[in-house]
Amino acid sequence: xxxRVVSIVSxxxxxxxxxxxxxxxxxxxxxxxxxxxxxxxxxxxxxxxAAIVLTTIISKPTDERVVTDVGAKGLTIQRRAVGITATExxxxxxxxxxxxxxxxxxxxxxxxxxxxxxxxxxxxKIEIIPNHICPVVNLYDKAFLVSGDEVVGELxxxxxxxxx
Length: 164
Fold this sequence. Notes:
Blueprint: E1 7-9, H1 11-15, E2 26-28, H2 37-43, E3 53-59, E4 65-68, H3 72-75, E5 91-93, E6 103-104, E7 109-112, H4 114-119, E8 125-130, H5 133-137, E9 142-147, E10 150-156
Parallel strand pairs: 1-2
Antiparallel strand pairs: 3-4, 3-8, 4-7, 5-8, 6-7, 9-10
């Protein structure tokens, strides 16, 4: 019996123009709509990422360490260590080239970067591009739609936490 549908999940292959295998009739691009830090590594830039986690700088306890108010409960602890999606750190800081989350605890993230520390202040908001957006989306009840600096809508994440 010949299958009617041959379905694959493969965002990375769509980003690098990999030829689709003969017989594939459907492609489900999980993170393609959002992109994340691992996908940004494939395309070579972080300016196309649609999903970010907004966090606040809450402490600058040493001359290189910065503490934010989001941690593993908001970013996960996922690293992508090998292959074309390999990432540095636990998330990229948007608009600060070469700055990444170094460590996460339950509710805090640490960034070790002296130059970054000197540019920001306690209370500043920064945007984190998660390494892998799929599990991050599952951590939140809502997503906010932003255009420029304006919140233009809100989405309830209806399938959040529905794993059984």
